[in-house]
Structures are given as structure tokens and as C-alpha cells.
Amino acid sequence: MIHALFCFLFFSLLAMQQGVSQEALNHEDKTQSANNYIRNSGGVEASVSQPAEPVLRGAMVKLTDFGSDDVGYLSIPDQEPKGGVVLVPGIWGLSQGIKFLADHFSKDGYVALAVDLFNGIVPKDSSSAADLRRFVREESALNVIAAAVRFLHESPRFHTTKVGVVGWDIGGEYTLEAAINVKGINAVVIYYGEVNLEKRKLSKLRVPVCYFYAEKDQTISKEKIIHFVNALEEEKKPLTFYSFEAQHGFADPASTNYDPTTAEAAWNISINFLEKEFNAIKKETGFLDRIIHSKE
Q1: How far does the chain reach from its first CA to its final CA, in angstroms?
Q2: What are residue 73's phi and psi, to 5 degrees?
Q3: Is this model's pTM higher than 0.90 or not?
């Protein structure tokens, strides 16, 4: 009975969204993705035409002036930015792979700032990653995310009016918390992050959410996902949901479950989601400006 209920709710939900994994992953996309991306010895997603260890285009910056003693990896686009993106890594920390993804965002036109939840420590294996995870505190994680959001909004080098937060795994968990508790966030993207929040708390959510679920995930139960989705729907919160036939960690280049084909499909959805939400904000702002100026 529970299984039947899950199937009905889960696939009814998928049908209501803009697309599902099978639509995002047609045969042609799979072939192209497999040919375009490889995983090198450093655990970094890289183009076949690039060297094994691509040169990073960003640099480390301090967040001291924005409320945190931590540092982050900043990557700036060559053109006028479309907006800002804070990257919140999962259990593998601020690795070369996450820095490369920040560069990927900047190449797509976003000021990207990847934060560090582990005080500079990059785990070497899953055991050390699990140990580090236990020492992360929600207060400190939200503090560094808030500082990164402020950095993108207030830095004298640029002033981004729109800021999104993208998180993986435990970083996705804190991304959802940040969407509820941190000011200045306009949209969030969550890759298989924990969603064990009460409906009362989810009712405080004020920003659009894009969530990627891994069907073969052994760490997050489908019951939790159903609860999360139903709670957001009941509260009429904007949710874009995608389910992929993949395992937990499919989008993290450092994970043994990394799936470059699925990761690229999710990446493209993320970019389209942020662009859509940022453009919507821009249009709303322009509309308000016209009203204000018409009264002057």
C-alpha cells in the first residue's frame, strides 16, 4: 500500500514539473556528454580537449568584511555578470572539483563564490569526510553562507542584485536552511540534500527551489522526499523537482558515484533555472521602476 501510494504521489509530482530525468537525458545527450566530459585523477570534471589538470581562473578571497573569518574561492566572468552564485560543497569540501565548477559558473556569466565549511580541510577518503561532517555546525555553516551572499551583493568590485545558492549533499542541506534564514537569496538549487524539515519551518521559505533527487539514494528516503514535496505544495511554495536514475553523489566529481552524463544534464537545468528566476526578478524590478518614475 505504501509503495503504491509512493508511486502515485511521486510520479504525479514529476508529471507536474517542467520535465523529468528521462526527458532531460535522451540518447543523443548521453552520447554527447560522455564524449565531452571525463574524470581525471584529481576528481575534477574536465573537457576531453583540456589538460588533465585545468588551470583555475579564480582566486581565494577573505570574507572578513562581510561577517565571517572564513575564505572562499571567487571566479569572475569576463562579461557583465548575470548575477551571483554561492556554491556550498558537500562532504568533499572546497576541492579542486568545486573550484572548477565555480569557474564553470563564471564562464556562464555568473560571479561565483565557493565557500568552505571545513576550515580548509579537503578529505582524502569517505571515512575522513564522514568525520569532518560530524563537526560542522549549522550556525557556522549559515554564517559563512550569509557572508558569501553579502560579499556578492556588497563587494565594491561588483554589485550583483540577484544571488542564488547551489549546494551539494550536506551543502544542499544548509542551502535549504539558508533559503529560509538568510537574507539576500533569490533562488536555490539543491543536489540530493537532506530535507528533514518540519512543515512549519518550510512555510517560512520565500525563494524558488530547484531540487535534484537521486532515485538510488540510500541516504535519503523517498518518504522524506514525498513529505518535503507535499509540504511545499500545500504551502504553495515554488518548487522545480527532478528525479534521476542515479546514486547519491552523482554530481560531485570527487564521489565514486559521479555520473558525468547525469551531472551535465542537471547542470544545464540548474543554469536554466537560475537564468529564468533572475530574469523574472529583473522584469519585476523594471516594472516597479516604471511605476515609481511615473509618479515623479
Answers
A1: 63
A2: -100, 120
A3: no
